[in-house]
Amino acid sequence: MSWLRALKETARSGLEIERQRLEPLIAFRGAAGLALVVGTSLVLFGPEIAASSAFGAFQAAIATFQRSWRPRPVLALVSGASLAVSTFVGYVSASHPVLFLCLLGAWTFLAGLAWAAGPTGGIIASSNVAIMLVTITLPTSVVDAAAHAGMILVGGVVQAALIVLFPVRRWGAQRDALADALAAEADYARRLRHDPVAPFDPLPLMTARSAAAVTPRQARRRPAELHGARGIAERLRPVLASLADPAMGVPAEGLERAWVNELLGAAGSVLDAAARAVRHGEPVHLSATDLGVLKTPDNDVILVGPALRAADRLAALLDDVLEIAEGTGTDSGVPEHLAPDTRHRPTLLRLVPVVIKAMRRELHHGSPILRHAIRVAVVAVCGYFVGEAMPLGHGYWAPMTAVMVMRPEFSQTYGRSVARFGGTLVGIGLATAIVQTAHPDARLSALLSVVCAGLMYLLMRTGYAVSQVCVTAYVVFLLGMAGDDWSQTVTERIVLTLVGGLLAMIAYALYPAWETPRLRNRLAEWLVADGRYAATVVDQYAAPAHRDLEEVRDALIATREARVAWQEALATAQHEPVRHRGISRAAATDAQHALAQLGRSAMVLEAHLPPASADPVPGAAQLAEALRRATEKGAKAVRERRLPDWQPVVDAVAHWDVPTPSEDGTTPVGDPVVRRGAALLLEALEEFTRALDERGGSTRVSSTLAEN
């Protein structure tokens, strides 16, 4: 993609306004907390301290809107406390320019590294640095700075207290995540009726898994309908796939296929009903027809073999889902120790070493997070120099803008820079028009700032440009309340915002972290993860008595994470102004499809895992080892831009085609489920090689296996 096209697309995405579900009650609660803090501070301490406390309450409320599974009061407290510390330390060092610039650089660098802990931590840390640049201009002494920091902390405490006293849809984020996962399974079941090998995006399941992690305190309070349904939803996917797949289930046409389609349709309806019940905390409403299809004895007459086992397993899992969605499931839980099937989330104190470890992992040259931290630290210091050198006053606006818009990836940084400038123009224009018309005093300015903040909370998810209109007007009114000169507002804010945005964009162009050159690496990591998952599943057939389902589960999660990492990298690379290096878009799309089929084939094999009492499958151990080694070597070939060779897997699968007389005179050919599954795995691997062969060549395909 050319630079001109990339700039056009990022500008368009930055200014885009989306239609999202608004949350007026939550927005009103945040605005009410801000109004309470500002009004009390204004009456008791005056406009300057009121401005500081307002920033604390404002930022604490914003933190609660971030995508996080931790309790919202905790986010508000962490945001208020960290901003208070930043403000006090920043003011103490502000009178010593060299010391302050060193502190600003170090503080911003750590804020950039905080993205290693996740987007929520990165956004809160970056916002703290940006707001600190404003709040340190308000106090006049160290004592005043301590008072301002204390009031900022109070703002966070007030927002946290309001969340506790006036909760809005408790566990709402977790409910939505689990409901989305169930709804995704329902949609998958319906799509399988028309496409028996339809793809499935595991992201909703991964999101639900992340949402299911709880601290011991959360586990004691978690509603019963949020406990266990996620694990059942994950076990449903391979059952649905195996039931629909013609290679493992029923023929593509005929009575059995028609009946399977009825089962899949009923499963989709049941899962949709369970999703609605979980999302809204209401009883499950089901159709008697759907239950009749799933419970009818006709299953035993129409279906046989693996298809019948899958249908019985599907009915049992759906029963479990309905039981949990009704809230009648048991929460095995919790007082001091989490149940074995409950995902553990560390408390804040125990999270500190985890975050530090995550930051240390990013301290290498190829890390996008490290490059972002270096970029944002340098730009913050340079922006402060440039802002102070310009004869406009309020020079902090330039570094503040740069820190707020910079992100680890190209499209977000450029899109937010354009949106920030556009939002600032509109916000300042509106604020200026109101000021010139109403000539507000301190109290009216405070009221106007609260209104702007409330609108920002309400419209935050509709687009960054819209939120910046409200934020700009909020800051203008708030600083006007504290005695800012209205006559300087328009020119300096616009010019310095433009300077900050340009610095951010130039910094990324000079010191980028392009995802395009790393695409082959991501693809190789996904191939290794898929190979390990397939090998782990096949290993269970080799030794059923010693099977380890937890190992299979871990391998499945690893391949899902690798797949999502690849998809995110591919989406990021598509917007980068980088020429094709390593893999074309067509090859990337075909390779993605092949690896998705590889993972799907392994998942279907997982759905038919034998009981512990079953006999070992001859040749399964050799196939598992061949898959593991071949995919590791294949990943190395992908990184080195060579075509992978699957000959060890071909040999292992072909072993079952070689007649081997046994003692009773028969000729074993291996378990038919494993044999067919192995053929599907090999076909996916060979399709992967063909996808990477952009010269039009083809790899060796086993005709015998293709016929089978």
TrEMBL record:
Quote any Pfam family the record assigns.
FUSC_2
The Gene Ontology CC terms held by the record are: plasma membrane
Transmembrane recorded as keyword: yes
Domain Integral membrane bound transporter: from-to ranges:
384-506
Instruction: Report the residue ranges that make up the Integral membrane protein YccS N-terminal domain in this protein.
Output: 81-189
Q: Where found in the cell?
A: Cell membrane
Question: Which keywords describe this protein according to UniProt?
Answer: Cell membrane, Membrane, Transmembrane, Transmembrane helix
InterPro entries reported for this sequence: Memb_transporter_dom, YccS_N
User: Its topology with respect to the membrane?
Assistant: Multi-pass membrane protein
Transmembrane region(s): 26-45, 74-92, 98-116, 149-168, 376-397, 417-435, 442-459, 465-482, 494-514
- Coarsely, its chief localization is membrane
Q: What does the sequence similarity comment in the record state about its family?
A: Belongs to the YccS/YhfK family.
Q: What is this protein called?
A: Integral membrane protein YccS N-terminal domain-containing protein
Q: Which organism is it from?
A: Kitasatospora albolonga
